[in-house]
């Protein structure tokens, strides 16, 4: 940290979220955006540490559920794409036969793939025989290998994951953690004997996402994406969206059921116990540095970040006060720091030669959950002062400090969860509805563009298009918490329990 | 692991090292080389786990010495190279003024840089205005940022590191871990106020390298590289070479003193306490997956890998024997595994339904330091059987097992260190010398090409070239353990304490 005690760091008010967010990621020393390629930030130690702690949460979930960590090459030869193209064509044909207008949208997305990657065309001064692209995600490299690894039902399930850098030639405006061109990416890929096994994996993924979001104190909306927003080659796509303070939803996790569609394209099959060859069923599960972006966006305030204790690089920062007055202060605070470390907390003793006010200010910006001060008077009274980042300052006894800190961290997490839930609820509004006048549809009333709308919706793709065009918002898909009672669809009026959301997506 | 109990896995004899090495990396499930780009292997869980443990050793050293972890972008715009080119030109000019023949060799290496990287020329279907290359190492991206970060003497020292993927368009034959095109790379970059501070950093680097090599049970030869083998832009380059069983040396760590040469090119300066602008002094320190390659190559035997306990993904693998005979075996071995885990060991309980012989065989190939068997008879006697990967099998009491395992792991490390030292000494031979006949030089006797030669050498570059041409070997540079007494130089005959080595380098 630079922290040489400037009185003011120029943090914009959080109510001006679109100014606050890009400022705070640099002011709090998470990244430096001055690297000369737009959308490729330098991770500074504090940001990288928080991200690594998020990675650890994911890794722990993976280990607990029997996934193994691999690392596949970054570069993918163009000719491997043929299989992927074959898959997309096959699906197109199948869907064309069903005459479903949504296919047209899928086609656009698929053909756009080549437009979204970076191409390596030369090695040294030689033009490569086969151009290679930087992975945007790893279906193609992984499934090429999976088809070599899976032979028999005894090889299944194959549960893999990797945490790697991926790339996307992003033409939209870039934003740290939210829309970047080099992405810190988590991807799990699994192979199963049956559709049911893959479905069970999707359920496991759903639980893992919720567990991680719980640790990050982030409530989310979980939806089954509409067909046109389904991942290419997937049977269906589930997504968790966090609602940022400006009302825009940020997709932070997706998990896809592929059935045997990708397996067909990659000759990924196994011999079942009866000696018959069967296609495998697959799932994938992806998350990224967007999780850190949500943490920044959701929990921060006018004073800076607030780090959820589960991923705070430092859960407690200690600093001495008036140590020159009493020579016992420094040894005592060192002991205190060590005993907290021994109890498993992530602890920083800030012994810089700057005023305590500067230290308070610096660590407040960085969102450290608990600041702990110890001075000569505290030594006499056998206590210390805790400043809680979510609010409040209190004197607590040094005796039993580890237990006290543990409880405080727990209550900080609870407080962050409560605030986030209130925030989410406050942004979800009832939809004013649409009315048809002649053959034209109109909104029944004006809508806000910084909130999301909950709708009962059971229409077809044309109905969805009407809604999206009129509102300029996107349908997130079928919410995993449907209405308990049938409610009239906003377009067709037909009673349905299908709850959906209209939102501006990042 | 696949481990379905094939009786023979086709491990070549280790005496045929050039067949053994490429086989064992796949048989022991470290990597899969079938990915369709040569030199880009897939890291399998066992290999990735060992590598991650090596990373942890490096990370620990870095943390203990006040380095912070960063992550810089992979892609570097070509125009940033201008500064690097400027540096190289400046050094060329300076050296040309000194009329030192070694410069010619340096020039070749520098101009080769562009030939050794992969070039990204397109984003989607657009040709990029400025082509970008995949980092082979990160001087250019890092120092571009450092010059923004360092302003005052109070910002120094700046001690950074990162663990990332780097790329090299390798035209030589690739070998897993040893010569690859996507490299798992560790690089530390530091910035100091003075040359002396940078020199102290070089000393710290030397100690860290030795500490890591000690944990990996790998003795090395540490040399100051000759001028022509100095990293471009460095004042001098230190390197640690491990000697592989085929007598070839593998450079596993380098650390470079840059003085203020790179700083000059990157405008990396600071204001000293007197308000004067001074150029910074810099060092770098690099290691890679070659460390794992050395572990594989040095410690393995005809039966497979031998993992040094410090980086063994599993230090102890337990398996039950004849569990069907006594229902207490399974609970007892689970308790045993848990108590070892609680003591901090990396433990695997192999409960596959295959014969114990198969398990022995599988874990022997993977080089697990200790295999622990427990059966009904052992339960009665309160003991278990340990198979030590470096040799021997013994019955030990279950009581105090954690202490026993700790001691055994220690002695396995010691045994590996002893073997490696013997190995190294056995490969270092006295050099038969050279003789001049007329104006031609010849070897005094034939030499072996699978050993390395120790020489007293104090000649100039032409003398070095004579030696390298006659032997087909390379001079590693000034060994950090000079002769205690002056010894005649092999070419000039002048007494010198400078010890050097002639070797075939990987």
Provide a descriptive summary of the structure in words.
Two copies of one chain form a homodimer. With 506 residues, chain A is α+β, with helices and mostly antiparallel strands. Chain A has three domains: 42-298, Bira Bifunctional Protein, Domain 2 (BirA Bifunctional Protein, domain 2); 316-425, Anticodon-binding domain (Rossmann fold, 3-Layer(aba) Sandwich); 431-505, C-terminal domain of ProRS (Translation Initiation Factor IF3), CATH 3.30.110.30. Chain A is 34% helix and 28% strand. Chain A has helices at residues 17-27, 45-64, 81-97, 102-111, 139-149, 195-215, 261-265, 290-299, 329-342, 356-365, 376-381, 401-427, 461-471, and strands spanning 31-32, 42-43, 68-69, 75-77, 118-123, 126-134, 158-167, 182-192, 221-224, 236-243, 248-259, 269-271, 277-279, 281-288, 316-320, 347-349, 370-374, 383-388, 393-397, 428-430, 434-437, 440-443, 452-456, 474-479, 487-488, 495-496, 499-505. A five-stranded mixed barrel of chain A has the order 9-10-11-27-24. In chain A, helix 2 (45-64) runs antiparallel to helix 6 and helix 3 packs antiparallel against helix 4 (102-111). The first copy, chain A, is globular and about 85 Å long. Strand 5 of chain A pairs antiparallel with strand 5 (118-123) of chain B, so a sheet runs across the interface.
Provide a concise account of the structure shown.
The structure is a homodimer of 506-residue chains. With 506 residues, the first copy, chain A, is an alpha+beta fold. Chain A is built from 13 helices and 27 strands.
């Amino acid at each position: 940290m630079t922290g040489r005690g400037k009185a003011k760091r120029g943090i914009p008010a959080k109510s001006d979220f679109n100014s606050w967010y890009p400022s705070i990621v640099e002011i709090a020393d998470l990244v430096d955006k001055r690297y000369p390629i737009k959308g490729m930030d330098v991770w500074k130690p504090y940001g990288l540490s928080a991200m690594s702690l998020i990675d650890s949460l994911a890794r722990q979930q993976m280990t607990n559920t029997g996934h193994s960590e691999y690392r596949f090459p970054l570069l993918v030869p163009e000719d491997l794409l043929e299989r992927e193209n074959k898959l997309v064509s096959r699906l197109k044909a199948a869907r064309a036969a069903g005459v479903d207008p949504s296919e047209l949208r899928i086609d656009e997305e698929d053909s756009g793939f080549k437009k979204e990657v970076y191409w390596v065309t030369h090695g040294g001064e030689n033009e490569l025989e086969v151009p290679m692209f930087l992975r945007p995600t790893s279906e193609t490299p992984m499934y090429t290998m999976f088809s070599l690894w899976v032979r028999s039902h005894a090889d299944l399930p194959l549960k893999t994951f990797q945490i790697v850098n991926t790339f996307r030639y992003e033409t939209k405006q870039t934003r740290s953690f939210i829309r970047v061109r080099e992405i810190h990416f988590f991807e799990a890929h699994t192979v199963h004997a049956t559709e049911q096994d893959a479905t069970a994996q999707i359920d496991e993924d759903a639980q893992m996402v919720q567990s991680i979001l719980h640790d990050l104190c982030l409530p989310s909306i979980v939806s089954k994406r509409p067909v046109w927003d389904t991942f290419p080659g997937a049977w269906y796509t589930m997504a968790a969206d966090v609602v940022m303070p400006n009302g825009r939803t940020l997709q932070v996790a997706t998990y896809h059921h592929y059935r045997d569609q990708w397996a067909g394209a990659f000759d990924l099959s196994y011999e079942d116990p009866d000696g018959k060859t069967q296609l495998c069923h697959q799932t994938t599960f992806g998350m990224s540095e967007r999780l850190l972006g949500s943490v920044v966006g959701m929990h921060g305030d006018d004073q800076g970040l607030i780090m959820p204790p589960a991923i705070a690089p430092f859960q407690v920062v200690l600093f001495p006060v008036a140590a020159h007055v009493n020579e016992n202060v420094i040894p005592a605070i060192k002991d205190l720091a060590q005993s907290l470390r021994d109890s498993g907390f992530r602890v920083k003793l800030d012994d810089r030669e700057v005023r305590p006010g500067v230290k308070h200010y610096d660590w407040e910006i960085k969102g450290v959950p608990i600041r702990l001060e110890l001075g000569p008077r505290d030594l006499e009274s056998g206590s210390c002062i805790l400043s809680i980042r979510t609010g409040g300052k209190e004197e607590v006894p040094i005796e039993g400090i580890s237990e006290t800190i543990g409880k405080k961290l727990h209550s900080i997490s609870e407080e962050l969860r409560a605030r986030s839930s209130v925030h989410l609820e406050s942004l979800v509004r009832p939809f004013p509805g649409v009315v048809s006048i002649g053959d034209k549809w109109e909104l029944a009333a004006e809508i806000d563009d910084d909130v999301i709308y909950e709708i009962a919706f059971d229409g077809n793709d044309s109905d969805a298009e009407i809604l999206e065009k009129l509102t300029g918002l996107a349908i997130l898909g079928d919410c995993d918490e449907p209405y308990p009672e049938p409610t009239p669809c906003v377009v067709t009026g037909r009673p349905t329990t299908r709850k959906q959301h209209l939102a501006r997506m990042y």
